[in-house]
TrEMBL record:
It catalyses: Endonucleolytic cleavage to 5'-phosphomonoester. The lineage of its organism: unclassified sequences, metagenomes, ecological metagenomes. Gene3D superfamilies: Ribonuclease H-like superfamily/Ribonuclease H (3.30.420.10). GO terms for biological process: DNA replication, removal of RNA primer. Its cofactor is Mg(2+). It is an enzyme of class 3 (hydrolase). InterPro entries: RNase_H, RNaseH-like_sf, RNaseH_domain, RNaseH_sf, RNaseHI. One of its GO terms (molecular function) is nucleic acid binding. This is ribonuclease H. Residues 147-173 are annotated as: Disordered.
Amino acid sequence: MPDIGPAPLVVYTDGACQGNPGPGGWAWAIAPEGSVHGSGGEARTTNQRMEVQAVLEALRAHRHHPVGSITVVSDSTYVVNCFRDRWWVRWQQNGWKNSKKEPVANTDLWKPLIELVQQLQPGFRWVKGHSGDRMNDLVDRLAVEAAKGPFGPGPSTSSTSSTSGDPDQASLF
């Protein structure tokens, strides 16, 4: 029987902010169950930063997954369009200036994210937020909860959880 390798990984991501700027949270979860997930937050941030941070943390957590086997699902057009339309290539060529010749926001997050994207070559898919998609709703809840704190001393706190499939454990849904 031929070795078919590991199954493709689908990871949902989301960011949330209470005020913009304000306390914020990010989260990721692996489909279809969401039992493996991570989240964190910052005391003062923006929604867009948290959207980018969510993808960065998801890819960091799965950096050893085979190249081309990860799909990131996000309700952030900011994130999805950056990779679909290759905005990042123009940003790099223009010295990290956007089309208005202004500095690209969140460069400190985009640079390491782009490096991981180049290494892992994930696919990106947009999902409409707050539309009843179970996994999108889950990462939204996790990000909103993370935005409540507590926040660590660094720029972002994180935690990764995994459930064992024990039927006595509380469901994420």
